[in-house]
Amino acid sequence: MELKKNDGANIEKSRLAFTAVGFLFVGSLVLASFSYKVGKISEDEEGLGPKTADVKFVQEEVKDTPPPPDTPPPTVDAPPPPQEEIVEEENTETEPETIVTPPPPVDLGPIDQPVIEAEIVDFPDVEATFPGGAAEMQRWINSNVQYPQTSIEMNEQGRVYLSFVVEPDGSITNVTVERGVSGDLDKEAKRVVRSMPKWTPGEAAGKKVRTRCRLPIIFTLE
To answer: Which of 8, 60, 62, 147 has most Cβ atoms within 10 angstroms of its Cβ?
Structure first.
């Protein structure tokens, strides 16, 4: 005998309806939860949330109390530390010997000794003279003087006063112009005196000495 299902007791036909009702119920719960959170957040933003109270802190004044007086630490009589005996050791190190070799002497050659000139005598006992006398000296000057061409063209003439020294050997040194006429005539007068032959030197106290002499040289145009 076969058992037949009753159409009224068949649940398969109503499963789809129950499933749809279940989804609708769950969706309502999810929507309600979101609506609650949004509403709570809105209340907090509008100032309806919990209020905060202002709290003030009052600082308590603390009075400084003076520190207790310093009490010196107790003194303890301790025996002095034992002194170590210092033993002086003799220095046995020897200093290295330094050998210094002096450089060879440098040959500086002959050293020029300073020349000490003898005193010039202006008024000796015996005057220095030209060989042959004053007349011979005048003839020698006239034959050796050379009148400068520039002085001839400029008509320069006059007396050139010179001074010079006759050395003990009769040579002429220290020729200077005491009073001149022109550059060319002064130069020619000095040249003539320097080219003179040796004089007879002057004497003082029986010895030949350096004698100062003065001589004018006259330049004239005919």
So the answer is: 147
